[in-house]
Amino acid sequence: MKTSKYRVKGEKLKLSSFKTDETGKGSESEALERVQKRLPKIAALHERMYAEGKQSLLVVIQARDAGGKDGTVEHVLHGINPQHVVVTSFKVPSALEQAHDFLWRVHAHAPAAGMSAVFNRSHYEEVLVTRVHGQVSDEEAERRFEHIRAFEALLHDRGTRIVKLYLHISKDEQKERLQDRLDDPEKRWKFNVGDLKERALWDDYTRAYQDALAATSTRDAPWYVIPADHKWFRNDLVSQILLETLQDMDPQFPEPDFDPATISIK
């Protein structure tokens, strides 16, 4: 499939123009087979990136509650050596973090050379949740968009490739997933009553997401809108995007600083 179809382009965005229940071509079993074939390739390229020690990868994942952030990490990134990837989730900022600028706590978690970082919820919470709840004005949100673009440009200039994924689910699908959590004793720990209050603000979040994605999807830090009602299609598309990204980065194993032919192990 053409991943460029899902990339956010231009200054105006309507999430309603993106399907949430897309299934692409082929069946679920075929999609699962494609993912399984990609995972070793992703892992091998990541191993080369780690050995090369020059480039890094940042994957930003945003979604509504029950949107599939954890599942995406579990199914698409589990083949990577866990020593080479760090997953960070940015929750409500602490008192210390609130005493600094909104990007202060984020920069320390940007990936080092050779590493990957996954932001499972990210600095974008500061232009989504805060905006919906009136903690920042529209004017302040616009300034934050500018700061985010500059921050991501800095990371890119340092050698970090950035991929940002918005997992796009429908309101009906969210209802089913929340109900499933509530009904299943083994999933009930995931249920948060506060999620229902956020669900009631669905249209406000839609507007906030549309503004944020349109304002911050750049050539060097693009957003992709991922149809996520069907988890198997989500994993198929995300794995392809990550594989294409790593292939484009084309990391190389470093040349040894010695002549292997002269080494004799006894």
UniProtKB/TrEMBL annotation:
Task: Give the InterPro entries listed for this entry.
Answer: P-loop_NTPase, Polyphosphate_phosphotransfera, PPK2-rel_1, PPK2-related
Give start and end of each Polyphosphate kinase-2-related domain. 33-252
The UniProt keyword set, sorted, is: Kinase, Transferase
Give one Pfam family, short name only. Answer: PPK2
Which GO MF terms are attached to this record?
polyphosphate kinase activity
Q: Could you state one GO biological process linked to this protein?
A: polyphosphate metabolic process
Question: What is the name listed in the Swiss-Prot or TrEMBL entry for this protein?
Answer: Polyphosphate kinase
Q: Which organism is it from?
A: Deinococcus aquiradiocola
